[in-house]
């Protein structure tokens, strides 16, 4: 009611309705971890096209399986990715620098990220500033050339009227570190001397280092240690702690010929379990190295992998076999073998948009774009050996092409009888958990009594009803499809005394028609009466 009724008349008061709309979270934001040509290290960067990836991380690069996976993700319908670049080497010594001379010292600039790309940087200084009497002011032009020692700039940044004076609002350190995508300041210039007019590049045309700075390095091929990372330092997979949400995790092979260790997959699956995400596991290339024993090797391999990951974390992982054969744009479009994780994640994203997260990302609609073949072509009986142990197969069919022909989690082996056997069921449950977790934050510290419980039932019920109308549940009526319970039965007086409110949400998931059985009967001769 109004705070004080002091004068006769009409008082107007707005009464809260208690309606708080719950919005479903994204379902196919895909995180990629691997080696890249350039870009921030151990920092998740959101990209929404391969053109944006190329601008930030350097595009396709043969030593980078990450670049090919990201390209295939967008090629197959993906639209939202988080890129985590990991680096095997010392970042500081692998980052190119440019030294700009002053009378009594120098201003040392460094490339924004490690890599040989920084060796193509060039800096130009002039003093045609707004106040030529101010000797601390100067203009700075940073250019990225088409090659080390080249002459054609492919990107440039210009910073006018910057100063070496730390008290200036245009202090060069602050301006570059906050606004430049090409360089940062490594060593400040003397506060009383601005750089002399000059054009300085990192490398000569022959690629050798000069007194103008030091060359960059791409580091060594990454190892499993860079991927598993360190939780306290937030490196490797733990760099995703800085990301608000991701739904799928792809870790391409360390190099085109070196696969991840099972222990790395286990660490990634465990992390996905804590973040309500799914891990896409690529079958090792070694499983198909001998076609005569490929199926037997795959059976042994997936069982070993599941044993290392553990049945608890296996519900948040899905494995795909075999690999794709696709043209390599960097090798005159000759066919090469690629891990399928990026393409599969793109297909999952496309399926979510077209049908919903409750639809299995497999079948005739789950076709690969640009694939020329698979590293192993299996028969139906061979598929029948792998599907019951939870290994999703990629198949080639005469007319429909190359398809994803499985939708099970790693816990989907028939022997385990897991309730999370199917990938769409697990992903839909994760979607509900994350959406309701975020959509019920307003409940915290509210009075724990029937008015609150009623509002909870109203808001969650409205969200579940919307999903029901979209066809996300089994059942012909809402009563058959879901329930939301929050009352004295779920929250006892003891719970109230402890500050706990319990909400029980149940749903009947849609399960894929994995086996379609046609029963055909020959009719006996019919006698008309």
From TrEMBL:
Top-level taxonomic group: Bacteria
Domain Tail sheath protein C-terminal: 418-521
Chain coiled-coil ranges: none
InterPro entries in the record: Tail_sheath_C, Tail_sheath_structural
Matches recorded under PANTHER family: PHAGE TAIL SHEATH PROTEIN, PTHR35861
Homology family: Belongs to the myoviridae tail sheath protein family.
Protein name: Phage tail sheath family protein
């Amino acid at each position: 009611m109004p705070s004080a009724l002091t004068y006769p008349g009409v008082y107007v008061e707005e009464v809260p309705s208690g309606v708080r709309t719950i919005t479903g979270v994204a379902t196919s934001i895909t995180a990629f971890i691997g080696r890249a040509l350039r870009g921030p290290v151990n920092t998740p960067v959101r990209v929404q096209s391969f053109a944006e990836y190329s601008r930030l991380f350097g595009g396709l690069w043969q030593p980078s399986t990450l670049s090919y996976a990201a390209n295939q993700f967008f090629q197959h319908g993906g639209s939202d990715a988080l890129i985590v670049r990991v680096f095997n080497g010392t970042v500081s010594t692998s980052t190119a620098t440019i030294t700009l001379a002053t009378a009594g010292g120098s201003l040392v600039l460094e490339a924004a990220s490690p890599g040989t790309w920084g060796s193509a940087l060039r800096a130009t200084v002039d003093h045609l500033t707004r106040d030529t009497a101010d000797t601390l002011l100067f203009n700075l032009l940073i250019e990225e050339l088409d090659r080390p020692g080249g002459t054609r700039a492919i990107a440039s940044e210009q910073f006018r009227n910057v100063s070496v004076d730390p008290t200036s609002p245009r202090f060069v350190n602050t301006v570059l570190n906050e606004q430049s995508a090409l360089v940062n300041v490594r060593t400040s210039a003397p506060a009383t001397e601005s750089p002399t007019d000059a054009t300085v590049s990192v490398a000569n045309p022959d690629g050798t280092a000069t007194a103008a700075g030091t060359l960059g390095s791409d580091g060594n091929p990454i190892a499993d240690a860079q991927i598993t990372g360190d939780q306290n330092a937030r490196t490797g997979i733990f760099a995703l702690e800085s990301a608000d949400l991701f739904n799928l995790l792809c870790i391409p092979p360390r190099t085109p010929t070196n696969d991840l260790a099972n222990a790395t997959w286990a660490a990634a699956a465990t992390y996905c379990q804590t973040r309500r995400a799914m891990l896409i596991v690529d079958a090792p290339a070694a499983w198909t190295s001998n076609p005569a024993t490929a199926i037997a090797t795959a059976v042994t391999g997936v069982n070993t992998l599941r044993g290392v990951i553990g049945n608890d974390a296996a519900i948040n992982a899905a494995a795909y076999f075999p690999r794709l054969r696709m043209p390599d744009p960097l090798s005159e479009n000759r066919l090469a073998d690629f891990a399928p994780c990026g393409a599969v994640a793109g297909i999952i994203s496309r399926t979510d948009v077209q049908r919903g997260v409750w639809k299995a990302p497999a079948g005739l609609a789950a076709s690969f774009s640009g694939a020329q073949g698979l590293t192993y072509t299996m028969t139906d009986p061979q598929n029948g050996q792998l599907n019951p142990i939870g290994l999703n197969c990629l198949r080639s069919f005469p007319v429909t092409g190359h398809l994803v022909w499985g939708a099970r989690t790693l816990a989907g082996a028939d022997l385990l009888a897991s309730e999370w056997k199917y990938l769409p069921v697990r992903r839909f449950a994760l979607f509900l958990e994350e959406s309701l977790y975020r959509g019920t934050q307003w409940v915290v510290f509210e009075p724990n009594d029937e008015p609150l419980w009623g509002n909870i039932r109203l808001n969650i019920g409205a969200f579940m009803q919307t999903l029901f109308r979209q066809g996300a549940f089994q059942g012909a009526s809402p009563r058959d499809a879901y329930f939301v319970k929050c009352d004295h039965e779920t929250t006892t007086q003891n719970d109230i005394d402890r500050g706990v409110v319990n909400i029980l949400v149940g749903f009947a998931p849609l399960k894929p028609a994995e086996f379609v059985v046609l029963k055909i009967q020959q009719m006996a001769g019919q006698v008309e009466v």
